[in-house]
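Hey,
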Amino acid sequence: MIEIGIEENKNIEEVKFGGTLYQIDFSDDKQKEYAASFENIGKRFEAVAKEYDTLSANEKATGDQLAKKSIELIEVQRDGSIEFLDLIFGQGEGQKLYEKCGRSTEYLRDKVEELATAINLKREEERKQRFRDLKSKFVHHNKKNR
C-alpha cells in the first residue's frame, strides 16, 4: 500500500529579513499577486527609464531636467521595492526595512533581490530533496517486495 500524507501550511515560508521573522504565503492566489505586483513595478520603472533615455538623447535637454528624471528613476525603484515588501511581509514593513537599509534605494533593491534569489534557491532545493526522498522511499520499498 502507498500512503501519502498531507502537511498543513506547506505554502508558508519563514524568512528572517532585517532581523525580523516573517511568514510568506506561497499559495497560488498570493503568488499571482506577487507576480502581478512585480510586473507592474517593472513596467513603471521601464517607462521612466525610457523617458530618461529619450530626454538624454535630446540635445536641448538641460542638466536640471536630466537630474529630475534621474531622481524620478530612484523614487520609482524605491517605492516599488517598498510596495513589494509590503505585499509579501505586510503593510508598513517595506518602509521599516527601507529605514533599516539606511534609506538607500540601491541597498534595499539589493536586499530584495537577495531575498528573491534565496527563496527561489531554497524552494528549488526542497523540491529536489522531496523527489530524492520519494524516489528512495518507493524504489527501495518496491525492491523489498520483489
